[in-house]
Amino acid sequence: MSPRDPAEYIEKLTAVLEITKAYRSIIHLDVLLRAIVETAAATLGAEAGSILLYDEQARLRFHTASGQAASAVKPMFVEAGQGIAGWTAQTGKPALVNDVANDPRFERRFDRASGFVTRSILCVPLTFEGKVIGVLELLNKKTGAGFDTEDETLLGSLGDQAAISIEHVRLQDAQQNYFTHVSEILIGAMDTHVPIKTGHARRVARYARLLGGGIGLSEEAQKDLYFGGLLHDIGLLKLDVMEDWTRERIELHPVLGYEMVKDIIFWRSLAPTILHHHERWDGRGYPERLEKGAIPLGARIIGACEAFDVITSKSSYKSPLPYEMALREMDAHAGTQFDPEIVAAMKTSISEEDTIEKRPTPPPGR
Fold first, then answer.
1. What is the pTM of this model?
2. Domains within the chain, CATH numbers bracketed
3. What is the pLDDT of residue 80?
């Protein structure tokens, strides 16, 4: 096979390197896998592509697929060593086959299930720290010449970077799962430690996320608000229940909570929200008497949502107010205790239905 234009190859290699840089900013696995397959197929001119990753039973599962009849193969799996993709996964070697009909490794059941007609396949292993975690495959080169060794090199380079990005996102997911469970344990401890506040943290978290969405914050910022709401009173766990909780002691809890989370990488961004959620718009709050825009936005939102929950919840030291009366009460303190814009947004972001106690829902992923 004659070599292609060197300038064209360098251009495509540069494009692949630029594409793989973009992978590093993607935090959701399904989005990342789809981006890898779509960019690989487009760059190398393939009709379809897929990524297969090992599952807990050591089988290769189609995690994402593009092209005609992709949905038909997604529920299917490949045993290690089965088919061309399975061979690549088992051996850790790429496979370039331009006439699959004459290759004994070719598995026809996928074509039969999907109605797709496979003519050529290019597979590369996805390898991380010396271990094959899956396979990236492209099907049917659109040009009549078929796949060549330059395509194999390009796809191999893309696959190497893709494997790193996949494992990075998986690690983030594992950390998220861990810290989600830790958060739930802490909130359970809080409900036991301060029974009058049972459910308070989860309600504040729900209201804060709704309000964040209402003012157009990003999904990531809304998640920070949710976790900030869950952990805003975590400093109360540092107060001894056997001692009197004077006003002076209670006012220590934002600082205590801040000290608990500020050095934990996963929660570090929540620390200012926890520290300042009892500041007031007029500067008469605590612990630092910040005022107006000097108060972090997350703290202004959590502070307003906390107050709203206190005046609407049965699990409180006050008799609950009906929804409309509660909004009027919040309005009465807008511009003094609360950011007026946050109170205004609360009216359109949190409905009466949202104040009805519901069974806890799992926290969102970060």
1. 0.59
2. 6-171 (3.30.450.40), 194-355 (1.10.3210.10)
3. 78
